[in-house]
Design goal:
Layout lengths: L4 E2 L1 H7 L5 E4 L9 H8 L6 E2 L23 H10 L8 E4 L7 H10 L5 E4 L2 H7 L27 E2 L2 H7 L6 E4 L3 H4 L17 E2 L6 E2 L3 E2 L2 H7 L10 E4 L6 H12 L4 E2 L3 H5 L5
Parallel strand pairs: 1-5, 2-3, 2-4, 4-5, 6-12, 7-8, 7-11, 11-12
Antiparallel strand pairs: 9-10
Amino acid sequence: MTTPLLSVQELAELLPDQPLLLDCRFDLADPEQGRQEYLTSHIPGAHYLHLNDDLSGEIIPGKTGRHPLPDLGTFAERMTALGLTPDRPVVAYDDKGGGIAARAWWLLKAIGHDKVAVLDGGYPFWVIAGQATAAGKEVATPAPAPYLVATPEEICTRERAQIEALRTDPNQVLVDSRTADRYRGENETLDPVAGHIEGAINLPWPDNLDGGRTFKSKEELRERFRDLKEKPQQNVFYCGSGVTACHNILAYYYAFGEMPALYAGSWSEYLIDLE
């Protein structure tokens, strides 16, 4: 697997190799909707990952944001239970243009698994293409040995304590990945305070998509990110809780083949010291 994005046809051709398929459908307004949709219909062989339960760690009031990163060892154990081995390719998908699946992609990269991609167009495109679907819960076949975490150097995260210095550093740039209205402090329904981190620019994650469906071309994405800093880790992406920032990171990686930094706590964590 040489690309972070796979088309429906490419995934269909990969199925005989038995990739590990991860269904990441999730709705913030109804946290169980994605699981129910998975049970009703999913790509054959896919296992469901819940954003709150599997792709996030424990929320600690007064210390973490809404979707803190899970412990990477715990996440690796979860992947081992689903059959992840170092050589097994992984494909994650959702029904939101990759907005949730990108979090699974980033976490797999963070534990050192490089053979991972997101299904471009997600489950809707799989269905539109007339590909086979299944219902019910898939039975997992655990891997024979635990997946050993080996976080590569390219995975860079920033902590809350670093943000004050970083946001005023001319050699760094903070990128708010939320929609423009939330960045401007309008239409805030998820966090107690509206607005953005002072000094951050805004590159809304949905703008990575062509018509809100599939990712734009590499050339278009390179143009989108052209005003950022030269070195990838000089660019620090955040969002509301560290989820859709991964979509921007995925788009950047697709365009340039390098990983920028993630402020995983994002706005919901940043606010804790402001309240």
